[in-house]
## 1
Amino acid sequence: MRHNRRLRWAAIPIAASLAIVLAGCTQAQLNGFLPGFVDGKQPVTNHTERISGLWVTSWIVLLIVGVIVWGLIIFAVIVYRRRKGQTGLPVQMRYNMPIEIFYTIVPLILVLGFFAFTARDQNAIEKPYAKPDLTIQVYAKQWAWDFNYVDDNVYDPGVQVQPDDNSATPGSVQEGEIPTLYLPENKKITILLNSRDVIHSFWVPATLYKKDIIPGQTNKMYFETTGRTGTFVGKCAELCGEYHSAMLFNLKIVPQAEYDAHIQSLRDQGFEGQLGSEYDRNTNLPGTGAPKGNE
């Protein structure tokens, strides 16, 4: 009885300390300091929080498993270490069926659990919109980006980012030359991804999601912008050649009025219509009609 009372009194300060620590966590800490939450603002897209939850929960589960495994290893090292005067091998244990079932079933449950939750979230993230508010076509090319605003029938041709030789910071680029994709806030977006040459990858770290762009096929992304506006850094996440590091772009989420003004500015510059596959460098892909081999 006295032993149980001691345990109860020991558990009270531990539980109180844990509650205080968790209550003091910022939004960034609760989301594992991932890029979309560092500044404590709302997520960039409707999928950002889902991805963060899967990532953080997985790490918590794995950390618990790690602590248990490390504890058992340390316990075995201390309790079953060779004592002074002992010789030979310690008593060997074989065919302990409960232990063998335990270390077979538990990892299987963990793997199935990770698979189930990942498949659930992937299905939600990859679910197409029947009627998106906006469709954007992105052409990746060495080493820049072209953006087609499909519904508005305008385009924005991208140029390769150039280094800023006048900056005192090494590796700086000319900010005004970075290709910028504008999206209105609180809209359902479908993005069509195509490559003009090699494999690229469309990645905005603040959204916690990226997708490869494969020559000869169209990949798609589906997400909904939230009420969070601002400019977010994007880049190619697939090594694509000599100037891969300069293949940057910005994602700018703005109010509808600012988005409309940007579309009008593209029209004023004469960028009406759509940039198509006629600028692709891979002219020998299936379906292009180009001669192949020795033809």
Note: The chain has a mean pLDDT of 84.
## 2
Amino acid sequence: MVFEGKAAIVVPGDEPIQIAGSEHLAKLEPYGDVTLYADRPESSEQKVERAKGADVIMNTRGALTWREEELSRLPKLKLIATCSIGTDMIDLEAARRHGVAVCNQPGRTAPVVAEHVFGLMFAVAKRAAFLTSETKAGHWPRMDNVMLQGKLLGVVGTGNTGSEMARLARAIGMEVVAWTFNPSPERAKKLGVRYVELDELLKTSDVVSLHVALTDETRSLIGIRELSLMKSGALLLNGARGAVVDTDALVDALNQGRLGGAGIDVYEQEPPPTNHPLFACEQVVLTPHCADMTPEGVDLLNSGVVENVIAFLKGQPQNLVV
């Protein structure tokens, strides 16, 4: 159904700046009036107040969540368009009940995100954060780093980002195994990987890289048992979602020296608290959920969210999750 008249489009909290000032916003002028808030709402009440009267929400920041409590108070809302691949910030069942469509941007920034995780792998393998800190402190540590060429990478989740991670790893001479919920010989051949069971991947991989969406099935996918299966000295990379990994179990594995290190871009609470247990671990490289935060990545997401909104208002919805 084509949207009649001009839509009320709201960006309820664009902090840190994502879409404010983007040239892509001008494309919305024929379709609706945009109200953009350049700071983050201080409460759920303020968030709802900002979104009241909106036909469309452009959710540019994943920290802004939309659950039953908020959605039930927004009867006019027709669409939430995200600046992301993930949709875990939205209660999809509640959105469905309230007739709110949700669209995301599957695969749009996969090369950008995979490159970041690939970089994390090198940073962890070469102990970049730890050795930088030690050198600045006047120390001169002698310890082995990890050579990645010829090693085995286990990719957990072979969607767009996981597939790109596999390609990058093969380019430097790594062997790649993978796990997914629905493997197939055709997919394995296309990606140049060998699909194995998750336990086998964990037992044999020198590096394990996580690229699954956060769902009920993947929450705490990597816990105490799974970490205990990993090879001594193996590296873990998480570019998926924080809740895919049991953080306490990961911290224990790192502090006990069972894992060689971890590269983390995502956390269960974002921003994480200043006393987050990972902060005290030596062999970690931590980034603030910024894998797609390059000029290219930001532009791709901004153009993508605008395209999704326009398509919906023209009665040609795309990338619908709900």
Note: The longest helix spans residues 295-313.
## 3
Amino acid sequence: MPEPRITTYRAAVLEALFAEMRRDESVLMIGEDVAAAGGVFKQTEGLFEAFGSGRVIDTPISEAGAFGIAVGAAMTGSRPVFEVMFGDFITLVMDQLVNQAAKVHYMSAGQIKVPLVLRTAVGIGANLGPQHSQSLHAWAAHIPGLKVVMPSSPADAKGLMTAAIRDDNPVVFFEDRMLYNRRGEVPEGEHLVPIGVADVKRAGDDVTIVATSRMVQVALAAADLLAADGISAEVVDPRSLVPLDVATLVKSIKKTSRAVVVDGGYRQYGITGEIAATLNEQAFDWLDAPILRIGAENVPVPFSKSLEPLVLPDPPRLAAVVAALVRGR
């Protein structure tokens, strides 16, 4: 039996881009420094050499204008993948994203589609400060008409990027840059992960941990700590926030009767609250304790190397919260 193929998260997304651009000439790559420079995190490396300036297009430092062009291209037959260099900068494209891309299909009575992917890098880490470290995925998830995905593994990153490019709706694709060098098994050839299907990353009996993006790795590490303490934690990765696979999450809670939701975005008015409220509505009769939630602290992300790690949940902190929930403390 052949050895499994191991590659990085960054390389897995790039594989999907290469494959889809070869398969479909309408797929374009657009953004700042995506062409000859190969991307600020080398996440578009080689695309320009393979497909040329007509399909891999550098833009001026004007996210609003460039994204407007991408929306127009999608409306008229292309399938652009538009990169916003840092997730914080989606603030600059929100009018085009929220009021145009998300609305045109409905306002045209279904006559116009916007098959567009907005990809961006998010995540606390690397001491990039408060303007380059935010995870604002809750903003996009709030808007009807947008799909929102957050892969946590190389295989899911490849499969979800493939699905996002082929989708006829606008998809916002959040990549945690601290996962770019993470390695894992990735299937050869075409690999498709349906948008809206959650994945149980680890089975357990005592408590469900619902975790998004990089927090899946935190949850898995916390589950190891909990196992050593006699607690069996099930880790469920929604993979996409919109649509949210509520059925899989409820099925897990029916088995464990307890849940903690953990996310890398701000806790206030965030994804943790939305998922917790949804599960409370859908699975209340099976719960033996309130659903708890953990997110990034409600402060601007510090630049300081000593303060930055305190903002984000880590495995010991998560394990302590879960253990207290299971033991009724």
Note: The mean pLDDT is 95.
## 4
Amino acid sequence: MHRLWRLPATFVAFASFGIGGVLLWLVVFPALNLLVREPGKRVPRARAAIHWLFKAFITWMRLLSLISYEIHGAERLQRQGLLILANHPTLIDVVFLISLVRNADCVVKSTLAEHPCTRGPVRATGYICNNSGSELLQACIDSVAAAGNLIIFPEGTRTRPGQPLKMQRGAAQIATRGLLDITPVTFNVEPLGLFKGQPWWQVADRPLHFTVTVGEDIAVAPFLQASQGESALAARRLTDYLIDYFTKSKGSYASAGN
């Protein structure tokens, strides 16, 4: 009976998310553009709107008995100018993070800037699209330097159950070139759900329980020193360290599936 309830509840949750995205695009952000003319003021307000909307969505999923959660170290996310790197086991990881982080910036797929459910938030908030080529790294560094809190999933996509954790070097290159320490966030989910390749209608037999852990900052300077200031080598070593860090934290489906 519980599983039968969560099937329509899951549909309701994601349908409401899509409707909310369209309303933001058609109503909220056009109104914001009219009322706030200065981009420097408009972008933070648009990000605040997303922050509170995502917080409401997480609460909505909990009220529908789809998820439960516990968060450790959330106070570390209350600072400004953070480079936040997280593992990516489920579909709603970014929603969780933005609900916890004020003035959040993200690197998003360029297709999201054209999708009707997401293009409103992406354009209004000034999120960084991943099609900016050589300018992408500098745009990320500039975002943190401007007191934004940049959220990146170094895996680039959701982890598949049972597969070893793999990470792209882009996040580490941002950290080493910008001399930016890393604030790591680990997601653990039990039972497995909302993972890559899973249809939305294959719901678990009980609510997904998220354990979100914000770790101590990872200093970048030691990696540069060990690499004699060579940023490319430092980025490779930092990427290897991050893979080991998140795997040992059991924050990926790779470890959960073994």
Note: The first helix runs from residue 2 to 35.
